[in-house]
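Continuing the batch. This is chain 6 of the set; chains 1 through 5 are on the previous pages. Same settings as before, nothing changed between runs. Recording input and output for traceability.
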Amino acid sequence: MSQIPGKELSGTTARSQDLVPCTTCGRRFAQDVLLRHDPICKKVFNKKRKPFSSLKQRLQGTEITTVRKQPPQKVYLCLPLFPLQKQPEKKSNWRQHHEDFINAIRSAKQVTKALKEGHPLPPPPPPSINPDYIQCPHCSRRFNEAAAERHMKFCEEQAARRAFAAKTPRQ
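Output for chain 6:
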C-alpha cells in the first residue's frame, strides 16, 4: 500500500520510480509531487521569523512593560557649531570590588580552617555597600537608579497600607 492516499502502488513500482531532490530543502520526491511541493517549500523557507522575546512574553500584562530603556545617544564625529557637553563619567570602583573579593577569600579560608580544627565558625564578613546605589527611606534596602525609582513608589504604598492596617482595630 502506498503512503499517498487514493493511489495504490505495488512495491516494485514505488522503488523503480525516480525521486528528484527539492532545490530548497533537499528532500527527495517523485516528479509529480515535486511540482506541488516546490512552490510551498520556497514560500516557507523564504519567510524570516521574528526572534522570540521571552522578556516581552513574561512582562505582557504587567505595569513593567511601560518601562523601556532609552537607546544610547549617537555622538557624531564632525565638528559641531556648539561644543558638546560631556556627561560626567561614573567613577570606577574596581578597588572596592577588589578589596571585597580579598575579604571574602580571607573569611572563606577562616571558615575552612575552623571546620578542620573543630573551632566555632567566625562571624561572616559585613556586606559591602555600593556607593552608586540609592537607599530606600522606607525599608532601607539599596537599589540602582532605575530600580530605586520603581521600588520607592511601591514601597511607599506598602508602608502606607501597613500603617493603615496597624491603626484599624481587627475584629
